[in-house]
Design goal:
112 residues, alpha+beta, GIY-YIG endonuclease, two-stranded antiparallel ribbon, UPF0213_domain
Length: 112
């Protein structure tokens, strides 16, 4: 299973990435061993995590999410909340969404 995740970094900016182990990747970002952006802007929280059945689907969704406005990214995260106590991803999406993957990221409700 692969995951698209959105981090809130110090300063209020966000960072999107993909991984097959969210907690390990988050720890790497916090330790300064993640992406260049998170080395300069350490993450403060995981905002959202969306599961995908394969790396390719997660990568396509990441590309789409990175093209969104900050408001749309946060809206996306609110639909895929991270449960830090359990490490679970909770969503009302149907299992078939995991196979379609990218459709969830591409939906763009009006954000003002």
């Amino acid at each position: 299973m692969w995951y698209l995740y959105l981090l809130e970094c110090r300063g209020g900016n966000t960072y999107a990435g993909i991984t097959n182990d969210v907690l390990r990747r988050y720890a790497a970002h916090q330790a300064g061993k993640g992406a260049r952006y998170t080395r300069a802007n350490p993450p403060a929280a995981i905002l959202g995590v969306q599961p995908f059945t394969d790396r390719s689907s997660a990568s396509r969704a990441e590309y789409q999410l990175k093209r969104k406005t900050p408001a749309h990214k946060r809206l996306w995260a609110s639909n895929w909340p991270w449960q830090p106590e359990t490490g679970a991803v909770e969503s009302e999406e149907k299992p078939e969404t995991l196979r379609r993957g990218i459709t969830t990221v591409c939906k763009s409700p009006t954000v003002r």
